[in-house]
Fold these 4 entries.
Entry 1:
Amino acid sequence: MRLVLLTPFVAAAGALAQGVDRAAAPPPPPPDLAAAVRELASHPALAGSRVGVHVRDLADGRVLAQHDDDKGFMTASNMKLLASATALLTLGPDFRFVTRLEAHGPIHDGLLDGDLVLVGAGDPTLGGRHEKDGPRAPLLRMARRLRDEFGVDEISGNVLGDDDCQPDEVMGEGWSWGYESADYAAQVSGLCFAENVVRLTLTARADGQRPALRLEPETGYLTLIDRVVVGGDKTGIDIARRRGGNQATLQGRLASGAKHADAVSVDNPTSFAAHVLSECLREVGIRVRGVAADKDDLPVAIAAGRSLCEESSPLLRDVLRTLNKVSQNLYAEQLVRAAGRAARGTGGMVEAAATAADVLRELGGDPTGLVMADGSGLTRLDLVQPRQLADLLAGMWRHPHREVFVATLPVAGVDGTLGKRMQDGPAHGHVRAKTGFISRVVALSGYVDRPDPKVPPLVFSILLNNFTCDTQAAKDAVDALVQELARAAGW
């Protein structure tokens, strides 16, 4: 069933590439489409809010409906559309990050007489969800190669992490302090590991006792204070990490017989990666005399080293699918910075934003008024116009990388962050779009396909800001408009 639902998008992509769609006449939109947009803008639940909408027919370029589409809005995760397009057009769909293990000293008689350095390239996937054997697997592979291929059984110096491929920005500009412990606000870094979080699984024991606790990755880097009690029929657990450190407190109640999964971000992902690498080295029998640390925390500079082995990321096209399907913030932050580094030599957010503006211009949009303070949309400082997102989507539909880009987007009622939305009605299976949500912000932008795969889709961007109603009510209002767009497309 899933393949049937996705087929119109793939078929349309092939048809446009062959030019056959130019001969197909798009069906006229129903006369009430503009009225449906006005209805959203005047929806009682959205009283006092800001509503931005742009709907365009890509078959002939007509703007079918609009409302404040030239005004700047907070985008939430719709910013990932710009981050994804920027990475895809700048780096290419087959790009891979490469993380290196370097020896900073000679190797003789089983001794690495110096430091071992893990050199990051900004890869957000190292030890992440794409790793089938658990987060420690790539570091264990490196440790075993160091032992088996280079004969190392002892390191006289330190195990260090090198994140110098990008500036130490830590978090996105304007991110709330309240996000600091959250896995969705994991710190950015030139050296990432395990998506810069520790995942926890609590399993109930007897009532009144502490639950069994498992960490992934298993590491001593994070100190946990467990104050959770087992009992009752409801689970309510809070986890908070002390600011600027790696001590976290779990408190609350785990229901009898229950299991609970959670996650907490780590402070200094570079040091985290070095620490777990040191643990892996000891596990395979390599003695480490020194400490595990971020090399920037040492008082002396580290000289150039010799590359021993590498770990490569999945292809960018696959990383982008994860980024947009599940709305993975760290991936967006790292990928747009990598694009900035490739285009401008430095991987900071300033360079990333400038590169994104260039990409929007290349795709036919005008970046005037665009404010890109982060890559994920988690900040409230971002400002994007619905028209700009529609221009981006229209440009990507015409681009040679169109099929790669469109395949990253969730499908209404089918998968990703749209899997539980629009599970029936004309939009089901016929809308690919990026969701977005932060407090008082809901966004949805994407494509509505046509029954005739030779006819290009409708493109739309809907941005809601400053609503005071329940978030679900705001999402329902957006989804109702998208259902009307699907009817306008002929479903």
Note: Residues 1-23 have pLDDT under 50 and may be disordered.
Entry 2:
Amino acid sequence: MPDSFRISVGVKKYETAFGDPTFVEPHSEFSNFKVQILLERESWGLFFKLFVGMYISFLLSYVCFFIHNQNIESRFSLSVGSLFAVIGNKYIVDSSLPESNSFTLVDTLHGLTLFFIFIIVACSVYALQLVKAEKIEKAISFDKRASLLLLMLHLILNAYFILEATIN
């Protein structure tokens, strides 16, 4: 849809007398003037500029699955750092966008990413429990399955919410 500008005039009918008791029937007609402005913009550059920090933070947290289970401090440090980075990114993005009372795409994507980082931390805790129970092979297998599942689910949900926002 290209940019356009349309002006139209017409008559608007109201089924009210606007409190005038002299009207027999509650009906009024007034002229109206309509202006329709359609704008199209390429917003993918702005989108990536706003969300690159959030996606990099998620990927940093995601890297935890490839750190050996016995280096649990590294796994938790990356995840906690990523958590704070996403929260910081949300505040920066919110300050650069207009105020909104509704739950926006920005809120949805940041909330989704925070939730997934929390799940990654929970997976690290579970893997640590497996290592402490001397089930190292099971912990490695769990990390592989969880990493694939979480990455695919995060990508699918991001694509869904972004496409939903661009269609509406």
Note: The two ends are 14 Å apart (CA to CA).
Entry 3:
Amino acid sequence: MNNSFELPLFPLNLVLLPKRSIPLHIFEERYQEMISSCIENKTEFGIVSGEDNNFQDIGCSAFVDSVVDRFPDGRMNIIISGQHRFKVIDRLDIHSYISAVVEELPDQPEATDQDLVSKVRSLYEEAIKLSLGWAVPHKEENTKPGDLSYLVAARLNLPLPDQQTLLEMRSAGSRLRKVAGILENAVTDVREVKRRTRSNGHLA
């Protein structure tokens, strides 16, 4: 049974995936207070997709990696990184910002499909090479399968509902299969565009 704990929440129109790094501009006073506390105490806060009164109950905790800018009026530009998935158990309105009692949602234990892991890595490398004209060296060779699915998914610019679906999947294998399917379609599309360009000199 997972232990529950209180976590400050930041509802936003985005989905934060574990291992993903993103910039945030903090301008509301309540979130200036929340983020300042997290920075001072080196604690995490949670990002949930949605708005104050209507947000998803499964989100991802975040850690402030760096403060890029601090302005005299308290606004901040920060870089955060996704940490762990959680589920909201009970909303709390005891601070100027929203918080909640949450519990972590680890992946369910399962055997690793190394062929699937290799397939995702290969497809991702091909997608990069087709898009850029050159391949980047693997930086995820020793990445756990569950983390690999998030790292690749975070770079695919998927619609928010698809990102939320991936976040909620508790099977690393299922996430990898979904990511592999998306990559296969993308690679096929780019191959066709390049084939038509080579044969016609322009898009047909």
Note: The mean pLDDT is 88.
Entry 4:
Amino acid sequence: MREILSLFSQDSANTLEQGFTLLEALVSLSLTSVIMAISVGHVFMLHDGYHNDMARTQINGNLRSALDVMSMNIRQAGENLQSSFPAVILENGASGAPDVLKLRRSRILDVLALCENVSTGATSLPISRDNNSVSGCVTDNVTSTYDAFEAIRTADGGTTRIFLFDLTTRQGEF
């Protein structure tokens, strides 16, 4: 029986010694706080990195789309133009303005000849005349080209921009 009582007394002594001291609790709390702070810092850093990568991916996608459009337009530059007409023009920006790259192509196969001198800003352009020695100005010769131009103008809502180009001076205007 003494042996049983001595076992009980040892167990009760051991249970009194179990647990943490205040110093041990403070040290473990400090270590846990440091580990949690480092973990939370890493989570925020990963979160910011994710958002930066998403923004970078979106910018790259937009740039890729812009380059696709530009490359398509560059490939089509000069389409349906006469060889004397400049398809690609690089204009140097004046007074620090940005340089301008102009790419031209024609939406119709033929070119309409301007049959009379016109002033800047004219809204009516004479493309044919009766009794003219220039074949591009005879009404019967320009009917199909004019019909193609009218179809494009109608598709554009009734108005369209055209480019007048003087082959002798190599100057033009919209």
Note: Residues 110 and 145 are 6 Å apart (CA to CA).
